[in-house]
Amino acid sequence: MRILFIGDVVGQLGLSLIQHYVPELKRQLKPQVTIVNGENIADGKGITEKLYKALLQAGTDVVTLGNHAFRKRDIMDFIDGAKKMVRPANFPAGVPGQGYTIVNVNQTKLAVLNLQGRVFLDAIDDPFTKADEVLAEIKQITPLVFVDFHGEVTSEKLALAYYLDGQVAAVIGTHTHVQTNDARILPKGTAFLTDVGMTGSYEGILGVKKEPVIHNFLTKLPARFEPIETGAGQLGACYIDIKDDTGVATKIKTIRIDKDFPLEV
Amino acid sequence: MRILFIGDVVGQLGLSLIQHYVPELKRQLKPQVTIVNGENIADGKGITEKLYKALLQAGTDVVTLGNHAFRKRDIMDFIDGAKKMVRPANFPAGVPGQGYTIVNVNQTKLAVLNLQGRVFLDAIDDPFTKADEVLAEIKQITPLVFVDFHGEVTSEKLALAYYLDGQVAAVIGTHTHVQTNDARILPKGTAFLTDVGMTGSYEGILGVKKEPVIHNFLTKLPARFEPIETGAGQLGACYIDIKDDTGVATKIKTIRIDKDFPLEV
Amino acid sequence: MRILFIGDVVGQLGLSLIQHYVPELKRQLKPQVTIVNGENIADGKGITEKLYKALLQAGTDVVTLGNHAFRKRDIMDFIDGAKKMVRPANFPAGVPGQGYTIVNVNQTKLAVLNLQGRVFLDAIDDPFTKADEVLAEIKQITPLVFVDFHGEVTSEKLALAYYLDGQVAAVIGTHTHVQTNDARILPKGTAFLTDVGMTGSYEGILGVKKEPVIHNFLTKLPARFEPIETGAGQLGACYIDIKDDTGVATKIKTIRIDKDFPLEV
Amino acid sequence: MRILFIGDVVGQLGLSLIQHYVPELKRQLKPQVTIVNGENIADGKGITEKLYKALLQAGTDVVTLGNHAFRKRDIMDFIDGAKKMVRPANFPAGVPGQGYTIVNVNQTKLAVLNLQGRVFLDAIDDPFTKADEVLAEIKQITPLVFVDFHGEVTSEKLALAYYLDGQVAAVIGTHTHVQTNDARILPKGTAFLTDVGMTGSYEGILGVKKEPVIHNFLTKLPARFEPIETGAGQLGACYIDIKDDTGVATKIKTIRIDKDFPLEV
Ligand SMILES: [Fe+2]
Ligand SMILES: [Fe+2]
Ligand SMILES: [Fe+2]
Ligand SMILES: [Fe+2]
Ligand SMILES: [Fe+2]
Ligand SMILES: [Fe+2]
Ligand SMILES: [Fe+2]
Ligand SMILES: [Fe+2]
Asked: Which of B163, B251, C62, C64 is most buried (most C-beta within 10 Å)?
């Protein structure tokens, strides 16, 4: 099975890039499953039902989230019905939404699990312990598991990947919005990438206008960060090939599309 | 002028990799200047005079540092005499050591400036303002400036790079120990890379043994993080070509050497 | 000279308490100068011109601020004309507003200086170095200096107080909204109190409704914190007696007014 | 039942103050139970078996801990046998030691529970959820519960106290080393105090020498913080009266002993 994973989609420009490139990437790469992190699609923070549906419409099978999952209020109105959307599984008990979902691929099933780091992020539940807990459930259903680990620091991401090495097909990081150049397969067969990068403007800072970010660093005055919605775009992604029987990865490759690196997979 | 820059050297294994690969990289790439971040060379935290000299001996022209600069006590005994070593320029006034140094390259001079971010790191002086201040000095001497910006988060690194775009040849990030895949030249000519990566063990977490890191995440008990000193290594680097007259970059390219990506520049 | 200082006024209820108790406290204590921290007066975060004037109207001589100083947009419209208002002096150069102001008291002058800590707060400029810088200016005008040090942690507040001991009449902490029980005069004559406490609801958490705060701790979902505007109130204050010639403190005493401790100075 | 609780004992000087004042405080106040926070007794960070026994010897019934609980290595050798010592109950599962202990007082039993906050402290398990879990166990044994809540910020401490209001006799904060002036009984009968303060030197900063603390703020260079072991001392404490049948508090009063406030309860 081949999985295509695309990192944090920022704003309308990010959605346009998904709509533009996903069909082309699917044509070239022929993934069985396409997963997109959508935590920044609504004005840079959060997601709405309309945008969730637009992502599915554009060819996405599963939408993952992160620390901005609950920023738009109306998520509460649709999250429990959004069967193809996952928020970090280690949010405290009682929080709406699901931490993983199952995708049917021919005769097999792929579990897509979302977890969130805690270093320099909110103190939600421990992602390591939660992974153990949730994997025990998932393994009743399927041995094939993809993990979007939404986190800030490199050490936590690699630590979780080693911790789950051999138990899941892939641990791919999101949140920093910058793709890392360390794609590899760990000793026991888990594909790993510290961060897959973002999808949105290529001209700002992490998808938002650069002037307010710089002004905030210079003055420490409150700032409003707005997605850039026009101009050059970028798309950060990777694909992973996994064995359908064991769930072990055989290949991981990053994809960077922008004006410096035009699409040529 | 071509500059070769190599990221955070961790422990003795990191030093061996420098000793092994720097001659080969110089042969192939023919850089005029070789710069190495050495903040983790002494047992993973800090630097000693002996190790500083070993880096120079191995072909390094300038050693940059970061948040671990002052972790080994004996740095106080040699830092003021270490003319080829720079610590972040935005440490408060009165702190020993220098924030930049000048390297003579034929008829030209290259300034090597070290700055440190403040997001999720110590509250030292503002790197943006300090950059303005120090560049005013440097520009009296030379228009060619290389910046090692040691920082945790992607937004701060790119913000500083845009802030200095056109004024310096390159802003290259260090500290996260994971190379990013976003090398580019910004609109006004500054080469940028969020993080160049590290040099040391390929088998642990950021150069140190993985078991204590994972144990610490699971238990929150105090842990001692030790560099891995044997086994497979990795080297994270990049090279930048700059115009000797204007100091503008014309090319930036990352280098990743490890068993998955053997040396072939 | 006697100085009355009242801590962080939260919302309309906080303002009512000021209007109610300041006249009575003045009658009983006969302070020459009354200073009030107003960073939370506008809906819990920030200040408006109308509320600034209401504080002056209620008998306040100087309004100090803190990390929420710039939260309401319209501060930009009046801050430069607000001669009796100070924001932390260690905001970066170029930020509107003033860090200290001078109050005339009979034949003498009192400087009121606002500084902000950096531990667990924004990385603005170093308050220690800034204090040196600003005091050099102030001492040209008057030896009498009152400092509102807005900070999170106890160690930073006491460290600054010791650092300034003998140079200023008082270092009084704000920001935690809980009055501490450690009022004292340091060896060289500076009065010190880690935190003076807040003025607003006695029934919530730091002046705001408790249910959203608890819900946020339990779920880590975004929450809106709103001041409680009715019901029982509390007022946190202290007064300091200083020598008009040397600016050294001779007495410091805390004032806590709430239903458990009704006003009886 | 009357409970005497004494805050963070720092170093040998802290122990001497316990040895000196506990007998006198017991004589005057006649508490049935004496509890002491000992997380800083061993050189300012952690505890050893010898010092644990010295605290018991000095008249302590239970020793509570906090974020420094595990700083001295030898705690691992005696923690599981230390029946009168508790470490924060919300350390992850599998961590040695106990989170609460039961003290027999005539015909009744008092549970002493230690919890730790997470704001600006390590991301251990959620203290709110853990409190629910542990109280369900404790309530099988006794309705009388004392909580030492070790935390940094005022909001988290008061939030937990309101959350447990009516279920426990007292929530008393530790960790900031500065006693607060907000002792009260919450609406449903739980006694609350944001922080009880510390026991150790009166002349330094939180019990340690002030010069290295100030130097660290000025330079951001690494510093070694050492307890002050001679000179003037201070003791921070409180006592709480609770009803033996319902476990509701009827009185809470702070005690501050230092040269400015000599012992006179
Ligand atoms: Fe994101
Ligand atoms: Fe995120
Ligand atoms: Fe490093
Ligand atoms: Fe570093
Ligand atoms: Fe405040
Ligand atoms: Fe504040
Ligand atoms: Fe403590
Ligand atoms: Fe503590």
From this structure: C64
Q: What value does the mean pLDDT of chain B take?
A: 97
How far is residue B195 CA from its own chain's centroid?
A: 9
With beta carbons under 8 A apart, name residues in chain B contacting A152. 120, 152-153
At CB < 8 Å, which residues of chain D contact A? 92-93, 118-119, 123, 125-126, 129
- ipTM, two decimals, is 0.97
- As a whole-number percent, the residues of chain D with pLDDT over 70 amount to 99
pLDDT of the residue at A264: 66
The reply to whether residue A126 touches residue B218, judged by beta carbons under 8 angstroms, is yes
At D137 the three-state DSSP class reads helix
Please give the angle made by the CA atoms of A235, A240 and A243, to the nearest 5 degrees: 165
Residue D165: the pLDDT is 98
Per DSSP (E only), the strands in A2-158 are 2-6, 33-37, 62-64, 85-86, 100-105, 108-116, 144-150
Between vectors from CA D198 to CA D194 and to CA D201, what angle results, nearest 5°? Answer: 150
> Which domains does chain D possess?
2-257 (3.60.21.10)
* Tokens coding A208: 């938002």
Asked whether the beta carbons of D208 and D223 are under 8 A apart, the reply is no
Chain C residues touching residue B125 (CB < 8 angstroms): 125-126
**pLDDT of D202-246, one tens digit each?**
999 999 999 999 999 999 999 999 999 999 999 999 999 999 999
Q: What is the mean pLDDT of residues D87-107?
A: 97
Q: Tokens for D229?
A: 């072991």
The model's pLDDT over B232-244, given as tens digits with 9 standing for 90+, comes to 999 999 999 999 9
Q: Is the dihedral of CA A161, A164, A169, A175 positive or negative?
A: negative
CA D161 and chain centroid, separation: 15
Helix (H), strand (E), coil (C) string for C131-181: HHHHHHHHCCCCCCEEEEEECCCHHHHHHHHHHHECCECEEEEECCCCCEC
- Going by DSSP bridges, is the β-strand pair B62-64/B33-37 parallel, antiparallel, or unpaired? parallel
pLDDT digits (tens, 9 = 90+) for A41-59: 999 999 999 999 999 999 9
Report the distance separating Cα C180 and Cα C236, nearest Å: 10
Torsion of Cα atoms, D137 then D139 then D145 then D149, to 10°: 40
Angstrom distance (rounded) from CA D215 to CA D222: 9
**Helices D210-219/C154-164 angle, 10° precision:** 100
CA distance A66 to B171: 29
Q: What is the pairing mode between strands B100-105 and B108-116?
A: antiparallel
Is there a contact between D134 and D116 (Cβ–Cβ < 8 Å)?
Answer: no
Decide: residue B129, CB within 10 A, 0-12 exposed, 13-18 middle, 19+ buried: middle
Burial bucket for residue D115 (CB in 10 Å: 0-12, 13-18, 19+): buried
Q: Is position A215 annotated as part of the catalytic site? A: no
pTM: 0.97
Is the per-residue pLDDT at D265 higher than 80?
Answer: no
